[in-house]
Amino acid sequence: VFQSYALYPQMTVAQNMGFSLSLERRSKDEIAQKVKEAADALKLGPFLDRKPGQLSGGQRQRVAIGRAIVRNPQVFLLDEPLSNLDAALRSETRVEISELHQRMNTTMVYVTHDQVEAMTMADRIAVLNDGNVEQVGSPMDLYNHPETEFVAGFIGSPKMNFIKGRYAEAVGAKTLGVRPEHFAIGQGDDAWEGRVTLVERLGHDTILHVNVPDAGALTVSLDGQQAHQVGDIVHLRPQLEFIHRFDEVGRPIAA
After folding, report:
1. Where are the alpha helices (DSSP H) in the chain?
2. CATH number of residue 195's parent domain
3. Which of 29, 85, 139, 200 is the most exposed place for a label (fewest CB within 10 A)?
């Protein structure tokens, strides 16, 4: 399944989905049956007589997936299939692909630069960096136990804070990694004082951007609706059981 859909504009949805079967000289009845089954699974039944130009981006992507389904493959390869969709359609189509995967019980190799897609859809993730496999594991393995600084920064949203200097040196590291959700707000000997520079209110949580001397610009994710304002002085307390320590080459330091 290609990023650009790769549908034939002069063909209908049904013709696009059944094209590979016609090349194999399957009977018209067999092609029609397989196209109908795929269309029903993808909720494309009402659109079979339309041309790709008459469809939304999400519908075109479903047609591209349906074209693969009709061949009953043992493995699907999906190359950035949601990258051309807007945020709302991307979320909707992500759920549809996950449900399809469960129904078909077929292996899917899914290429994406979007870590949210990787975390929510995958059973196992392989993180590539400059052509090298950095780590392979379940989504939560990569989140909780990143084997490189690159993986730690890729997995998680908002991304992990990386801190050098005295705060890292205090825990015996070249770089200290703290996820935004692993800060608490409160006074204490271990608290870091900083000034709020931006507040993002998402309803279900609040994202603070905080400038901390000797640590730089940090992102903090707090549950629920918070009253913090730009300019406020806050005290951040990293939850020590969740911090990550990295050496000079970006490898984790054992506790």
Report:
1. 13-23, 28-41, 57-69, 87-104, 115-121, 139-144, 149-154, 166-169
2. 2.40.50.140
3. 29
Query: 115 and 72 share a domain?
Result: yes
Residue 255 domain-assigned?
no
Residue with tokens 């981006």: 57
Splitting the chain (255 residues) into consecutive groups of 10 residues, what average pLDDT does each group show? 85 93 91 91 90 89 89 89 81 86 89 91 95 96 96 94 95 96 89 96 95 96 94 95 95 88
Residue 35 and residue 59 in one domain: yes
Structural domain span for residue 19:
13-121
pTM for this predicted structure: 0.81
Contact 236, 192 (CB under 8 A): yes
Cβ distance 32 to 68 under 8 Å? no
Question: Which residues have CB under 8 Å from 59's CB, separation 6+?
Answer: 44, 47
